[in-house]
Amino acid sequence: MTSASAFRDVKDNESPEVSLSTMWAKGRFARMAEFVGRARELGFTHVEANASVSPRTLSELMATGVPISSFHCPCPAVSSSRGKPAADLSLSSLDERERGEAVSFARHTIDLASSVDARAVVLHMGEVPVDPRLEAGLHRLYSRACPDNEEYRRAREEMAFQRGSRAGPYLDAAKKSLCELGEYGREKGIILGVETRFHVHEIPNLDEAGELLGAAPAGSAGYWHDVGHAVVQERLGFGSQEEWLSRYGHSTVGIHLHDVIGISDHHSPGTGEVDWEMIARHLPAQAIRVCEVGEWNGEDRIRGAVGFLRKTGILD
Question: Which residues contact 184 (CB under 8 A, 6 or more apart)?
Fold first, then answer.
């Protein structure tokens, strides 16, 4: 079994702290001790507990003693009182029972993070209900290399209109949830990271992130930048990655590092089309670095990730 001291030895030898998300472990390792050992071999000093790990898997992970930098909420993956996954509950729901249960699961994640001296909990803040065919249409048109034609522009405008006209009450509910969780997180010594989302209808968009962070209790929450999500939204015509970083870089708690090919994300850093040097210019030294790569990335694709990130300046 790989011990926490082995990870601390890496840190003592002045390698920068960098985490590997348990996303990569899904279906790849029979036991978390194997994942932890391989993570260290690949140059990672910490791990992030992803929202897809089961209670048993999380217990195994915590038993290894590996330093856990952050938890991706809700963690572990369990069912809600309604029989659907806890991850499907929304912190922006207008149904107060659903919103309250989502807050409860988030509090439990904060408790777990505090129990192992993690630094942060990453939050998905909910969504604005829109016609799901709109974004599916945008993806389809983009894949046909049609992002500049009239049909695409109409679909993008309709998406923006639907989302904008409906957002108000859902954003208010998300603010309420963040305020409740911010107070709880402060008591537990855990900072919350409001994450950039993949889907256009999800909260926050570029302007809403500032509203959410402004509403949170002082010092309780910051911005969590997701590289792949921001690139995909930019390519679909909704904001730019550099603007996200320019606006919120100073308040960045952490970052999910993964590469993008077209509008497919969660590729290993260095295997896609992301401008990593630009990101490095905006990233504060204290931000938690987490490689969040899909389990379908072979080990050959992730083996050089830490060295690549160091070369680009993401890791000092």
Answer: 107, 110
pTM for this entry: 0.93
In order of their start, the domains of the chain are 4-312 (3.20.20.150)
- At 103-151, the pLDDT tens digits run 999 999 999 999 999 999 999 999 999 998 999 999 998 888 777 788 8
Alpha-carbon gap, residue 3 to 11, rounded angstroms:
13
Containing 41, the helix (H) or strand (E) segment is helix 32-41
The H or E element containing residue 105 is helix 96-115
At residue 188, the 3 state secondary structure works out as: helix
Tens of pLDDT, residue by residue over 1-24, are: 333 333 434 344 344 699 999 999
Q: Are 256 and 231 in contact (CB under 8 A)?
A: no
CA 34 to centroid of chain Cα atoms: 24
80 vs 210: CA distance, rounded Å: 30
Two tokens, residue 3: 């011990």
Tokens 């108000």 belong to 168
Please state, in angstroms and rounded to a whole number, the distance separating the CA atoms of residues 254 and 243. Answer: 17
For residue 198, what are its two tokens?
């993949």
How far is Cα 212 from Cα 172, in angstroms, rounded to an integer? Answer: 9
* Radius of gyration, alpha carbons of the chain: 19
What is the dihedral angle through the alpha carbons of 101, 47, 293, 239, rounded to the nearest 10 degrees? 60
Q: Which of 124, 102, 97 minimizes the C-alpha distance to 229?
A: 124
Alpha-carbon distance of 6 to 36, in angstroms, equals 10
Q: How far apart are CA 259 and CA 229, in angstroms?
A: 10
